[in-house]
Structures are given as C-alpha cells and as structure tokens.
Amino acid sequence: MDIRVNNSTCTGCGLCRSACLYDAIEIKDTKAVINDSCVFCGACIDACKYGSIDITGQAEEKDFSDYSGVLVYIETHGRIIADVGLELVSKGRKLADDLGVTLSAAAIGSGIAENAEIVFAYGADQLYLADDPVFENNIDDIYSKVLVQIIGRHKPEIVLAGATAFGRTLIPKAAAILKTGLTADCTGLAIDSQKKILLQTRPTFGGNILATIITRNARPQMATVRPHVMEKEKINDIPSDIKDRVARIEIDSKKFKSRYKLLGTETEKGEKINITDYDVIVSGGRGMGGGERFELLRELARALGGVVGASRAAVDSGWISYPHQVGQTGKTVNPKIYIACGISGAIQHLAGMQTSDMIIAVNRDADAPIFRVANYGLVGDLFQIVPMLIKRIKEGKPLVPGKS
Amino acid sequence: MIRIKIAVCIKQVPGTTEIKIDPETNTLVRQGIENIINPFDTYAVEEAVSLKERLDADESFEEEVEVVAVSMGPPQAEEILKEAISVGADKAVLLSDRAFAGADTWATAATISLALEKLGDVKLAVFGKQTLDGDTGQVGPELAHRMNMPFVGYVSAVEEISGNSIKVKKLAEENYEIVQVRLPAAISVLKDINSPRVPSLRGKMKAKKEEIPLWTAKELKADPDEVGLAGSYTQVVKIFTPEMVHDVKMIEGSPEEMVEELFGKLKELNIV
Amino acid sequence: MHYLLTEEQQMIVDICRQIVDEKVKPLRAELDESKEFPWEAIKEIARGDLFRLFIGEEYEGMGTGIFEVCLATEELSRGDLSVATSYAASGLGLIPINIAGSEEQKKRFLPPLAGGEKLAAFGLTEAEAGSDAGGIRTTAVKEGDHYIINGTKQWITNGGEADIYTVFALTDPKKGVRGASAILVEKGTPGFGFGKQEDKMGIRASATRELVFTDCRVPAENLLGREGMGFLIAMKTFDESRPAVGAQAVGVAQGALEEALEYSKVRKQFGSPISSFQAIQHMLADMATSVEAARALVYQTARLIDSGAKDVSRLSAMSKTFASDMAMKVTTDAVQILAGYGYMKEYPVEKMMRDAKITQIYEGTNQIQRNVIALDLIKKGVI
Fold this sequence. Notes:
heterotrimer, A: Rossmann fold, B: 31% strand
C-alpha cells in the first residue's frame, strides 16, 4: 500500500499541502513530497487539480455476492422498543429499496415478542426474535453473541443500529467478532448507485467538516446512528398475518453466560431533565458569555413553554450542566422551535438540532454558520433582542406602533 | 515482587474543533493548529495514576503496579507520552511506523493490542471516552474483544479495584449501572470521573529525561495485513463541508422591529 | 520576555501558570466573596511539588533557592494573591526550621511540609507588637520537659488551617528582646486555639486568625535553636522571605497590567480602542516599566541571597518596598484604565487593588523597611 506523486504532472502548486491536515506534504524542488505522517485520507487527491496523486497497492476487492439485505438492530429497554430502532427501520426501508433487497430487523430482549412486531408497521419485511429471560438486562457480551449468530446466518450486507449508550459498546463488539468495518454516529446514509455500497457520512474533527466513509473488503457494512437523527415513518398498520415473517431464535441459556455482574442501578442525581421531550428549546452558546446569563434564556423558555439547551462550548465552560447539551456529543433534538442564541453553528452542534421544524438564530456575527441552517435569522445583540421578546410575549403590547 | 500494569491508551489530535474548508480552493484551512493530547484522554491518564495510588495504598494488595502510557501515532506523539509521565505515568511507549498509517479503529485496536501483549501483565486498559477527531469511542471495545477482555464504557467512578476484579459505576441510557467484571478488563472513562492533576516538578523533570521506546511494526511482529490502511475495514473516501441547507430569511430592522416580526411568526405557529 | 531561566525554572513557572489557569482563575471571585480557604488550589500546588521549593533535598525538598520560590510566588500571585499568600506564608512558617532546627526536628517536621500534606504558619505579631516586634508579651515558661505558653498572637496568616506553627514567645521576659525564643506548636495541642477568621479588605480567602494560647503545654524538644535566639531567627527568616513578598507584589501588578492591556485593546470609545489614546498608552508604558524594574530588583536580590551573600538586609528591604509600592500604584492605575468597569466586582482588577495593599504592610511595613535601608546606608555607605 503506497501513496505516490506523479512527478511529471506535479507542478508544485502546493494545493495538496494546504489540504493536508496531518502535515504530511512538503514542496521540495517544485514537487510535492509525501512523508510518513500520511494517513491515506485522500484529501490531497481531491485537492490536486492535475490528478498527480495516487494510492496504490490496495488489496483486491473480495466477492460479497452472498451478502444481501439490510438488517436493523432493534434495541429494547425492558419490554419497550427504543424509538431509534424504528427510525432506522424507516431509513433502512429506503436503503433496501435503493438496493432492491429485503429489510429485516433483529430484536433481542425478554418478553418483547409482541411489541417487536411494530417493526412491520415501519417497513420491515422480516423479524428475527431472540426473546429469552437470559436477555433481561442489556449486556453486551451475550447480546453480541446472539446478534452475531443472526448476522452470520442471514448475511445482510448492511447492518444499522442506534448509537445509544448501549449500542456504543454492543456494536463495536459485534463488529470485532465479525471482523468487519463499523462507522459510528453517522449523520447520513446513502447507497452508491454504481458500486451498490453504503456511503456512511459523519462529522469529523468535531468541527465543520464531514467525511464519507465506505467499508472495504468486509461484510456486513455496519453503521450506528444517533437517536433523532433519522425520522421514523409509519407506513401501515401491523399486518394481521406476520407469523411467517417472524423467526424465533432458539436460545440455550447455558451458552449465554455473561462476564458482567450487574449489581444494581442508580438514578442520576440532580436534574433529570430530558430536553428531547420538549417542543420548544431555547439554546445558548459561547456568545452568552457566562452562566448567570442563561437565566435570560430560562425566562424565555418558560414564557414559551419550553426548556433551555446549550452548545458544547457553554457546557464545557461550566455555564450549564451536560443534560442540556445539544450536538454530536450531547443530545439530538428535533423540537417544533429551536432558538439558537449566541451559537455559531459548528457542524458538531448542527448535527444535534438541524432536523428541528423551525430554527431561529440570533447572533451578532452575520457570517456565523448557524444562519445557513436557520429558517429565520436575526443579526443583533441577543441581550437586547431576547429581553424584548420576553417582554413582548408577557405584556402583549406591540413594540412597534401600527403592528400587532 | 509481581508487577502488574495499567495501560492507558492515548492519542494526539489537532488542537482545534474549528477546522474549516476554504470554499474557493476546497482545501483545508490550517490556521496554526497545534497538536494536543485528546482532552478525554487526560481523564484516562489521571484515572490510571489514581488507581495505581489506590492500589499502592491498599495494604492487602501486594503486587507492584506500573502505569504505562501507550500511543499509536507519528513521532511527534512522543510529546503527549511525556505529558503522561509528567503527571504520574511510570513509563510510556510510542507505536510508530509508516505501516500503521491510515488505520481505522479496528486496525488501531489490532496494533495497540500487540503492544499490550508485548508489555505483558496488563490487567487494566484505560481509554478516554472518545477522541476529538474521530469521535467513535470504538477502539476500546474492539481492543477488548481482540484480547478477550470484558469492556465497560462510560465509567463515571471506579468503586472498587482489587487484584482480580473491578467494580464500576457506568452511565447507561437514563441512569447509572453498577457493574463488576474480572480483570484483565478494559474501560473508557467520562469527564465526571476525576479532575486531572497538573504536572509536578519532579514529574516534568522525569519526563524530560525519559527515553521513550519507539516500537515499529517489526518490533510488534505485526502482520502487515492487520495494521494500517491494509488492516482497516473502513476508509475515508471524501472530506467536505456541507452545502448551504436552505434559504434563510433574515429578519431585519431595529431590535424592536425584529422582535415584533419574530413574535408574529411565533404567533402564526401558535407557540404564543 | 526572557529572564534567562533554566529549563527547570521554566518548568516551575509553567506548572504555576497551569494551576492558575485551571484551578485559580475560575474560583478567585467566588473565594473572595466567601472567604473560604483555597484548599483545591493548595492541593494542586502541593501535587505540583511546589512546596518542595522551600526545603532541602535531604528532607524531600527540591533543594533549590529563594529565586525559585520567587518564581512560583510571582506566578501564583498573577492569578490570585490569597492563594499566593497562603503558599508563601507556609514557607515563612517553616524557614525557621531550616535556619535553626536540629537534625531531628528537620527530619520530623519538614517532609510533610515538603509534600504539602501539612501547612505551616509564622506566629510573631501581637496586638501590642506589630512593627515593634520586640514588644511581644506571649510567654513560654519552662516546666520540667515542657514549655507552658500563654498569650495571644494576632493576624496570623494560615492561622487555623496550618498544622505547624513557629511561635515566638518570651522564655525570659526580663531580658526583653534577647529573651524571646522560637517554639514549634502543632495544631490540636491542648490549650492552643484560634480566634475567628478576620474580615479583610483584600486577600480575603487567605486565612487570618488569632492564635490563643492558654496554658498550652509543648514538649521542650520543640524549641528551635537555643533560648534567646528567637529574634535572630525571626530576622534571618525575614531576610530570606522578603524577596518573595516582592515577588507577590510583582505578580499581582503583572496580573493587573495584563487585564488593563487586554481591556484597552477591546474597549472602544469615540470610535477607537482606548489603547490608541496617548493618555492610556503612557499609563500602560509606565505600569509596564515599573513592573519590570521591580522584577529585576526582586530577581537580583533573590539570586544574591542564593549565592550565599551575607549582607542582604538592605537589598531585601529595597526589593520589598519598591515592589509593593509599585504594585499599589499599578493596580490602582489598572482600575483607572478600566474606569467604570474597573470599579465593578464583575472585573478582577478592583480585587487586585484591594489585594495589593497588604504587600505594603505585612512582613515589615514599608516604613520600617525604609528605616532599615536608611540606617544601613548611613552605617555602611552606598556600596
């Protein structure tokens, strides 16, 4: 495996050097020279106007024609089917249709048989059910064992799962057992119509850049997606005869002994706030400038019947606690109204709120990226605008004569 | 005296989350990006050192504990290994080789597991929750699987640790779970778990003098098909900034006018 | 700017800077309000090995000099003078042990102080004995193999928080100043109590309390040196520690200068940043010049003491006086540059001004310092 610069076409323009995030390219004697820091990300290849850079020596693509179908892992909490599974069934339906293959779901838990049938209302063709008391608690070693059994037997080409707290340890373990690739926290999934492979898109460098990733030379192509990133879409009611489409996996409990001892649970002390439950979220970012100033946003949230959210910068600065964080490393929300105050709009944050029905952004900086995703943008001082808005809502008196 | 090791796996990342692409040239804008230790990893290092101190103070525990910081990266990643030593890691080792380049989380886990096997007697591997640049948090569970160890992620407190087991409090979906597993095991830790200490003077002096061994693919006896890009199952094919999403309507005027118009929109939606 | 520091000295500065940025700055305003002792910062300073700077290598110290202490103290003072004072006062409290302690006393008391597990305090001042330290009235009467201490010390820094106190008491009241001795008293000794924490103008998070001795029995082996040596020990201690007070002043002034400079670049009036106005420029220039001058004097004094020079009282007094007078002026000017905002507690400079005042007062008021300088000048000439 090697990366080479074609010296006859290289002009030493340096575009590749500017593109390289890893400091791996220098221009020596008017030619690009790539050093050991290269990680083969391909940014230079895209940047080069002359097609002078090439990666060679990659292994031949294996034949995966025996892998077919999309499988969605259905996460359960007790007997409840987690929403994220249904969101992914809806997305999986579209991917399966693009490929012309079947969509199946795999549910693991105890006493979940009846509730798991909901997947058929969202577009699943087939349900694999591992329903046994041994799966009473979500534990990654025994869950991954049965999930891998299902995948091994039915060979889906794509496996999707929710990037939940449990998903994040279960799925990497499953991928490791299967010796296949896994892309976490995808914000976009699509099918490359030519190569018929899954294009997995996710933010990278925590900031303003997206990366598209593919799974090379291994199957299934596994991807996790955070809750609320995809939308669940009920297609029809659960059909009356689905018996043929539900396959129960026989479980020999002796073969499912876990290495983890679950000794107990504890509730989160302090606020038990779940901002995803609210229709209105008023969020503050670095522009708030301090924890006490969030009181202003709390007032507005109260006036609108909503809750306060925050960007990572605000939480990291200690201005507000983590349960309020919206974004790639916080919660993904899609309320009716999302009001972003003093938030610049890094991708990391957008990933957490861009599916909101209406986004209103208030920022001093007219160039802030948040204005690209907002429905309505106000360039101004939030410490003037927000108090005025609160006053307008509370007092009901127009601020500008002749308008009401 | 039996020596057991706590390995803390750390990564050097670009020190900014503000990397942008220049829209005209479609290339990355590198504005004085410094390299730093992945912020989540500082908590991992602190936890490893704290656990060693706990075990040292425990009279019933007879083995000697050594904290070894491990990093896979280019030669300059040595900086973060020295940082780890300055805050209490006993030793460090750098895994660096052209052959490791382009590794995804799986190939990274493969490489690091070879190093931990070479170190020997690793009873606990500690990871930060996720990296600033990769964000996946996958290397920990994948490595644990390769080494046939249980993995517990999102640990917010280590309640008990002994020679053969560890009991932790971990963050689950809506609450915390108390879980116990036998050692050897791997864990990833949250920021809540501790408050990383500042380097000590003696620590910095030790770090300055320390010669950190560099292990190449050869020293690790790595199979070239298992490491680097060759050993990766996923690959980045494109990096880009997202398109402008849709037409934003800018509300303009004096603050009073802007608020009045905004109020009107909220009223239309029956929010007010 | 480069002060020709060695790599190790630079490490000291870097560690202190990190502590200031991560543990001190976020908390300093709150601690000023609550007057709570800055334990978190002190613990971090201990973990950074900085208490080892006061102590020799044989006793788990770094074996470095007063110059290194000045570097650490200055850097901590940039962040918060309460934290720096708590640190420096522990040093002050243990220097008598370095000077006059027996091998056994050093082995017993210094290691925990080096590790910062325990703090020290210096107990000299009394209600009737401030500048006139010779007027102390606390007594230590020998009874068998104990001393019985009676009296009250006033305004003792780290009082109540420290574990080890170097207390100056009259073992022979008839001899006046020559009858004073230095005795180590540990917190928790029966008969040793504390008054309430004083409510001060500045360095409010630094603990300042009375030490109350009521028939306090202390083992005779806690006596430092011989009876009657108390004053000599105290004076020698001050000669060594005085540059560190100068360093405190340099640090707090530096911190104030940085705030004023930042602000002047950001604050716009009449369409321009105020840093473009000559009035402000001249103020900043004068502030920066005087900080550098004080720093040079403090560093030079510290280096001289570390080189083993014997006759350091005059220079020591000069460095403390000049730096503290400078700090009072610079912090006041900083408030002036921030003007209305500088007067508000929301900004850190008013606190720095309130904090700076103490440097002109403690460890010998600047008036006493001037006496020392003048008398030395007259006796020995300029050189």
